[in-house]
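hi! just following up on the protien thing from before. the input was this:
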Amino acid sequence: MNKKIVIVGLGLIGGSLAKAFQKYSECTVAGIDRDPGVVKAALGCGAIDKAGGDEDIRNADLLYLCLYPQADIDFVASHIHLISPSCLVTDTCGIKSEICTHLPRMAKEHGFPFVGGHPMAGKERSGFAASDADLFADASYIIVPCGAPRPAVDLLKAVAVELGFGGTVVTTPEHHDQMIAFTSQLPHVLACAYVMSPRCPEHGGFSAGSYRDVSRVANINEQLWAELFIDNQKALADELDTLIANITDIKEAVVKSDAEALRALLRRGRLIKERLGE
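and the predicted 3d structure came back as:
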């Protein structure tokens, strides 16, 4: 594939996309970031071919928005006059209902296609320094068409395959956000709540794999995740209600020394996990 790519935001995801395009495609990549030092670093390691500007946006075949949700919306609003009808605009946000409330309408009004996207990959570290051309190897790429024409959706699928993603999932904004509340946001909430225990600073010498597994994603970018949590408040609150109810059931069985009830609850969890086989 040989396309002109513009990536807005060269953090972990944007930087990794840039590096993946350079490694796995014949595309040319222009990068935009508010930090000149990040752009310089991206140029220095060959992640981007040039620092992006207005002319690059005008000539882009694909425009990737790799900022926070509101910043993505604001960027399109302030640069919308530069976006060609032939340019596919997509995002990489971890929530979709908020994005898909605004960007498809703006795209329709100005005549370019918008397809929501969410590469299901990440690290505990953030920023361009943590970016990796192989971050997306075998990962899932979620596509939210938002009413875009089929060729635009097919192009994004083809790009995902070329960059090494393991497959694509096409869904609606609502279903995306419900599932992400469970698979991504809830574990981050759980990890943060877990390490707030007064026992956490004393874990050395007493912890092994269980501690590492549960606490790993507590190393969180609080500015980004607070925005994602609030933008997805209904779905996340529903998942939290379910988690709290399940934890309460286990707590009550422990407090009452009800071994039978406790075994039944633990067995239920084990059988669910075994049935899923993963």
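Strands lie at 4-8, 28-32, 50-51, 62-65, 88-91, 114-119, 140-144, 167-170.
The CA atoms of residues 121 and 161 lie 15 Å apart.
cheers
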